[in-house]
Amino acid sequence: LRPQVVELLAAGVGVLVYSGDDDFMVDWLGSKLWMNALDWPYRVEWAAAEDRSFYVDGRKRGTVRTAHGLTFVQVYDAGHLVPMDQPEVALAMVKQFLSRTSPWNARSEVALVGF
To answer: CA–CA separation, 4 vs 8, rounded Å?
Structure first.
C-alpha cells in the first residue's frame, strides 16, 4: 500500500487515512507508524506536524495530523468499521477532507484509504 500512497501524493492527489482507536485488527498506532515511514519529499514535515483535536458538533471525536496532502485521523470510540461505529464522525471527516477549503486537502484531488 505504501508505494501507491506515495504515487498518489506525487501526482498531487490528497490521501486520507483513518483508523478507529478501538480497532484490534489494524491499530491506529501501526497505521501512523507506516505513514511516518513513507518515503516521500515531505516525510519530515508530516512527522513533525502537530496532532490536533478533531471536533464534531462541539465534541472532541478524535485527532488529526495533516501536511502536504497526507492526512491521518484517529477516530475515538470506533473499531475496524469507523463508519458503522461513528457514522456522524465518519461523515464529518469525509466532508472536511473533500471540502475545497479544507486545510486537510492541500491538493486538487483526493483519495480515501480506510482500514
So the answer is: 6
- Write out pLDDT tens, residues 14-52: 999 999 999 989 999 999 999 999 999 999 999 999 999
Secondary structure E strands in the chain: 13-20, 52-56, 59-67, 70-75, 109-114
| pTM listed for this prediction | 0.89
Kindly report the average pLDDT of the chain as a whole number. 90
**Residues 30 and 2: beta-carbon distance below 8 Å:** no
Distances, alpha carbon 33 to alpha carbons 3, 25, 86, in Å: 15, 15, 23
Three-class SS state of 20:
strand
Q: What are phi and psi of 21, to 5 degrees?
A: -75, -10
